[in-house]
Amino acid sequence: MKILGIESSCDETAASVVEDGRKVLSNVIASQVEEHKIYGGVVPEIASRRHAEAICGVVDKALSDAGCTLDDIDALAVTYAPGLIGALLVGVNYAKGLSYSTGLPLVPVHHLRGHIAANYISDEKIEPPFIALVVSGGHSHIVNVKSYTDFEIIGRTRDDAAGEAMDKAARTVGLPYPGGVNLDKISVNGDENKYKFPVPKISDSKYDFSFSGLKTFAVNLVHNASQKGEEIKAEDLGASFIKAVTDILVAHTVEAAEEFGAKKIVLAGGVSANSRLRRVMTEKCRCKGIDLYMPELKYCGDNGAMIASQGYYEFIAKKDSEEFHNLSLNAIATKSIDKV
User: Sorting pLDDT into bands at 50, 70 and 90, what band is 241?
Assistant: First the structure.
C-alpha cells in the first residue's frame, strides 16, 4: 500500500511516498530556513505564503521521485495538528483538493505521532509498545505508545519546550537561527561543567518538565557577566545548558520506562538530533538493559515520510471509517497526541 504524505505544520513544505508504512520511495522537503534566519525565527505569515508557493511542486516531485502517479497511490495522509494554523491550512486544503478530485481516502495525522513514526522508517524492527520521548521546538512529551494508534501522555513540559529553551539560550549568546542546531555545534568544544544550572522539580508530577527557569538562568548569567565586564564563552555556556536540559530529559524518560516496565525507548522530534541527547541516552539505556531506537538524522526534522508512515497505520486501524472521506477536515493549532 502506497501512502502520499504531506507536511506543512511549520516552515518546511514536505511530501513523501511511503510503502506499507516502512519503505520510503521518495522524500522531498522545501526548507524556508534561510528566509526566516533574517528574522531570528519563523514568521507565520511568511511561512504560510511559502507553503502555498511550494506545495504543488513538492508533491509533484515526490510522486516523480517515487516513480508514481496519483493512480498508484492508495491514500493521502496530511498533518492537520498541531502547528502554525496558517501553515497547516495550506497542507490540509491541498490534500482535501486531491482527495476530492481523485476519490482517494484522506487520512488526518497528528504531527507528533508522525515524529514517533519516523522511527518506523529508520528501523524495520521497532514496533509498539514502547516509551517515546518526543522533543522539539514546540513540544516535550514522554508518551506511553501502547500501539501504533494508542498513545498515553505520562509527562510533558509545563512551560517552554526543550527545543524552545535551547533556541532562546542560543540567541542569548548571539547565535543565529536555528539556535538549537548551532548551540549543539559549538557546544562540542565547550566545558559542560563550567556552569551549574538548577534542576527544576514539578511537585505534583515526577515526569513533567519545566525549562523556563533554565532559560532565565542562562540569560541572567550573560547579563550579569556583561555588567561586570566579564567574558562568557558561548561554547561553555552552551555545553552547560545542553547538559542541564538533556540530563533532565534522559532521567525522566528512563525512570518512566522502568516504572511502566518498558523494554524499549524511542526518541522523536527535532531535538532528537541533538548529539549529547543521543549519546547520553544511548549510554543510560545500555546500562539499564533497555533497547534504544532513534530516527536517522534526516528524519528528525519535519518531513513527509513520517506523516505517510503514521498515516498508513492510522488508515489500517480504521480503513473502513467514513472519516477518511470527510472533506470537512480542518486544521487545528493545538491538539494533544492522545486525542484523535
Answer: very high
* pLDDT score recorded for residue 30: 98
Residues 12 and 47 occupy one common structural domain: yes
Residue span of the structural domain in which 237 resides = 127-297
User: Which region among 112-121, 160-169, 197-206 has the lowest average model confidence (pLDDT)?
Assistant: 197-206
CATH code at 242?
Answer: 3.30.420.40
- Residues 331, 335, 338, 340: is their CA dihedral positive or negative? negative
**Residue 303 pLDDT > 90:** yes
Task: Write the secondary structure of the chain as one string of H (helix), E (strand) and C (coil).
Answer: CEEEEEECCCCEEEEEEEECCCEEEEEEEEECHHHHHCCCCCCHHHHHHHHHHHHHHHHHHHHHHCCCCHHHCCEEEEEEECCCHHHHHHHHHHHHHHHHHHCCCEEEEEHHHHHHHHHHHHCCCCCCCEEEEEECCCCEEEEEEEECCEEEEEEEECCCCHHHHHHHHHHHCCCCCCHHHHHHHHHCCCCCCCCCCCCCCCCCCCCCECCHHHHHHHHHHHHHHHHHCCCCCHHHHHHHHHHHHHHHHHHHHHHHHHHCCCCEEEEECHHHHCHHHHHHHHHHHHHHCCEEECCCHHHCCCCHHHHHHHHHHHHHHCCCCHHHHCCCCCCCCCCCCCCC
Same domain, 33 and 108: yes
Give the residue among 111, 121, 152 at the shortest CA–CA distance from 294: 121
Query: Which pTM does this prediction carry?
Result: 0.95
